[in-house]
Amino acid sequence: MAEQKFLPNCDQNFGFFEIQCDWLIKYVDASASYDKDARFNGKISEYEYTLANYRFSSPLSKIRYVFGSSGQKQIRVRVKDNSGDWSNQVSEYGFYIEFLA
């Protein structure tokens, strides 16, 4: 019988946009992600964020990112479990318009 593999699940709340001093600040919360084999000591070990073509990994499930320009932004997140398996990537598009006074 083949071993059943439980991939991690990426579940996120992409948070909200906040405008401060002409900067767009995006809060991303992936803390609801979980490893489907948690009953076998599985856990999320890494979060990979892609924000406007900038990709980075972090052990943190919540991040804040500053976009310095207006326009459409794509945000993608995936998670890795302690077995080295990656979840599917989830994504969101947002659009930021700079208001001039």
Helical proportion, percent range: under 10%
Which value, in Å, is the CA radius of gyration?
16 Å
Tell me the span between the first and last alpha carbons: 67 Å
Arithmetic mean of pLDDT = 77
Beta-strand portion reads over 45%
Q: Low-confidence runs (pLDDT<50, min 5 residues)?
A: 15-22
Task: Give a structural overview.
This protein is mainly β. The chain is 0% helix and 51% strand. Strands 6-5-8-9 form a 4-stranded antiparallel beta sheet, with no helix packed on it. It is elongated and about 45 Å long. The termini are far apart.
Keywords:
101 residues, mainly beta, 9 strands, 51% strand
Element layout with pairings:
Blueprint: E1 8-9, E2 17-20, E3 23-29, E4 34-35, E5 44-51, E6 54-58, E7 62-67, E8 71-81, E9 90-96
Antiparallel strand pairs: 1-4, 2-3, 3-7, 5-6, 5-8, 8-9
Short description:
This protein has strands spanning 8-9, 17-20, 23-29, 34-35, 44-51, 54-58, 62-67, 71-81, 90-96. It is mainly β and 101 residues long.
